[in-house]
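Batch manifest, entry 17 of 40.
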Amino acid sequence: MATLAQRMLHQYYPEPENVFRGLLTQRIAGCDRVLDAGCGDGKIFTYDFQGQVGAIVGIDLRPEVAENDQVDRAAQASVTELPFADAVYDAVFSHFVLEHVEQPEAAFAEFARVLRPGGTLVLLVPNAWHYFVMVGRLVPFRLKQRL
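Output type: structure tokens
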């Protein structure tokens, strides 16, 4: 049984991954086609939407996208130039990707283009004032590259 401190910590400071996963599960349940924009190789953010959605397509810049076994189809592509027709997805989600995009407005335009009318967009990005992000600003870029 969890202690009072553990229950309070969980209630007032929930893990963003768990909150995101729960929200995402609610929003995409029953969708026919879902796009995971920036899915990577599937080892950092894991999920299992088998039976909850028709099909999940994943895209990522890295060739390791082909190793992602959580998606039904994978393609190497940029979130700013999606290789899909207009209005083909019921939902698009992205997990800690947009903060790495030089032109996020182009990504949003592409998400809007591939979403069907009334489609769902679910995003997780870091809070600019989170201690991890603030410390990251203090670490020199060359050191980040070596790490």
